[in-house]
Every structure is written in C-alpha cells, then in structure tokens.
Design goal:
By secondary structure, this protein is of the alpha/beta class. Helix content is 32%, strand content 17%. The chain folds into 2 domains: 5-93 and 282-299, Rossmann fold, CATH 3.40.50.720; 94-274, Rossmann fold, CATH 3.40.50.720. Strands 8-7-6-9-10-11-12 form a 7-stranded parallel β-sheet. α2 (18-26) packs across α10 and α4 packs across α6.
C-alpha cells in the first residue's frame, strides 16, 4: 500500500478544488487540501499550484515537489516564496500535446484555405470561389520544439505542409522537418514562413519576440498563429502589420492581459481570430496521474520526468 502523501493546493480555489476529487479517484494516497483546510503545514510535502501568491509557499517548510497543473510555470516561478531547492515540474502529457496539435492544425487550415474571407463573403451573401494552394506549397514555421512542437509538426507534415522549426538546438526534430537555431536561423525561418506558429515558453529571451522586426522578415501576407504566452507579442506591432498588409491575418489564443479587456481593439478586428487561452488543457485526472508518477520516481531517488529547468524557464 502506497504511503500517504499530504498536499496543498495553491491558487484560485475555484480552479484548484476540482483536483481534490481527481486525486481521490486516480491517486487516493495523495490527499490534497486548500490552505485553510491544512491541519499540519509541516506534514505537507507536495504543492499543486497555479498562479500562487508571493507568500503562498512560506507555511510549508518540508515540500519535496511543486507541480503546475499545466504546461506553463511562469506564474509559479514568479512567486517570491517558491523554495529554490525543491523540484518544480510541469504537466507534459501526450493528450495535451495532441489537443494542441488539433487546435493549431485547425487554424493553419483556416488561414491556408482563407475561411476568414469565405465568412466575410457569407455576411455579404457573396458567392465566390477563392484560389487554392496545395498544402505542399504552404510553408509553415514553428517557433519552439518540445513535445507540443513535435506533435504540431507531425500533424502538419501528415497533411503534406512544408514544416520547419526554430529551436535552441535545431536538432532532434520529427522526420521531414527542417531545423533552424540562433538569430540567423530565426531570420531564415521567418523568410520561409507563410504561416508562423508560436509555441515558445516565456523567458527573458523570448519576451516580445513577435515584433515588427520579425513580422517584416515574413513573406508579405503571411499569417500568425500565436499559442505561446501573451507577453511574446508586441500588440501594436501586430496591428500595424495587419494594417499595412505585411500580415494577412492572425489567430490569438494568449494575451498579455487576460481576460482580454472589452475595449481592446483585437475584439473587433476583422483579421484576428480570438480564443480565450483555450488551445489545450490538462484534465485533473491527467494531472493526478502525472503527479503520482513523479512522486513515485522521487521515492526511488529520481527526478520527475518533466522537471523544469528554472534557469531556462521551462
């Protein structure tokens, strides 16, 4: 019988409460509680977190693992009380990557087949067939590799798109995918990207990477699919690129301020598709399974499979 593990949920109670039942079903030896329900803070060895407060980790001196409930960890890393010597993991399940691949593929098809133009024609009751391009003639540029980038690349190459990836190494990529790295590689990737997809984690190096300079290196009329982090995008530069025709359209799932303010110009822009940071998600059951596996690995003296490199930020 597995040893009982005491855990705490750090974040919005409305979000975190669902995980109690999931762990009871999937990993009953891990008992989670909201902070106000914790009886003995010193007995807590696991923290499950999402955008915790600056002091949220302080009451728990014996943490052995901190886990995000999703792929992102920026909100956790921003907490001043996050212990520096405790492993931090993110959720990196295959189902989450496949969900992202499906979402991105839909948006690639939307831009490739010009469904935005068809929708505009429908509003005008205008019957018009638009010119078509073979998928093999549409060049896709991916910013970011990893599990999600690999899943997206495989989904798009299966549809015969011409896919390339820019990553830190430019190596270990799916079959049939060209790799780029470094500043020069980013410029070369941009120059051959009819549709640019951003899947990057947020770091000091990637903040603001979607800017006027990068947009200017894309082929005229390129499209953007942005599913990374809101702070990657310089919003004014995107609006300018859409206005001058350098970009034809954009799909945006993440924003610097969420929820997106009602007065924001993105809401009414005819060339922007907005979704509410919903490209992919990890289910509470998936989180419970991955965290239970991580705690078991740590019991055997190993680090979690998806441990975060805090210096890199992912």
């Amino acid at each position: 019988m597995a040893r009982t593990i005491q855990g705490v949920l750090l974040g919005s109670p409305e979000i975190m409460r669902d995980y109690i039942a999931a762990f009871e079903r999937t990993a009953p030896h891990i008992r989670l509680a909201l902070p106000q329900e914790v009886v003995d803070p010193e007995a807590v060895t696991l923290a499950l977190a999402w955008d915790p407060g600056a002091d949220d980790f302080r009451p728990y001196p014996n943490l052995r693992l901190v886990s995000s409930i999703a792929a992102g960890v920026n909100g956790i890393l921003a907490s001043a009380s996050l212990p520096g010597d405790v492993p931090l993991m993110r959720i990196a399940g295959e189902s989450q990557a496949q969900m992202m691949a499906g979402f991105v593929t839909w948006h690639v098809l939307w831009h490739h087949r010009r469904f935005g133009d068809y929708l505009a024609n429908q509003r005008q009751r205008h019957w018009q067939r638009l010119p078509k391009r073979d998928a093999g003639d549409v060049r896709i540029g991916l910013l970011g590799a990893g599990k999600m980038g690999g899943a997206v690349a495989r989904a798009l190459t299966a549809l015969d798109y011409d896919v390339a990836i820019h990553s830190r190494s430019g190596r270990n990529l799916p079959a049939g995918v060209e790799g780029f790295s470094g500043t020069d590689g980013l410029e070369r990737l941009a120059a051959r990207s009819d549709i640019l997809i951003n899947l990057l984690p947020l770091t000091a190096e990637t903040r603001g990477i979607l800017n006027a300079e990068l947009f200017s290196r894309l082929p005229s009329g390129a499209a953007l699919v942005h599913v990374g982090r809101g702070e990657h995008l310089i919003e004014a530069d995107l609006l300018a690129a859409l206005e001058n025709g350098q970009l034809s359209a954009a799909s945006l799932d993440v924003f610097a301020i969420e929820p997106l303010p009602q007065a924001h110009p993105f809401w009414h822009h005819q060339r922007i598709v907005i979704t509410p940071h919903d490209a992919c998600d990890s289910t509470p059951n998936q989180v419970a399974q991955e965290v239970a596996e991580a705690m078991a690995r740590m019991g055997d003296g190993q680090l979690p499979a998806s441990v975060v490199d805090r210096h890199a930020g992912y």
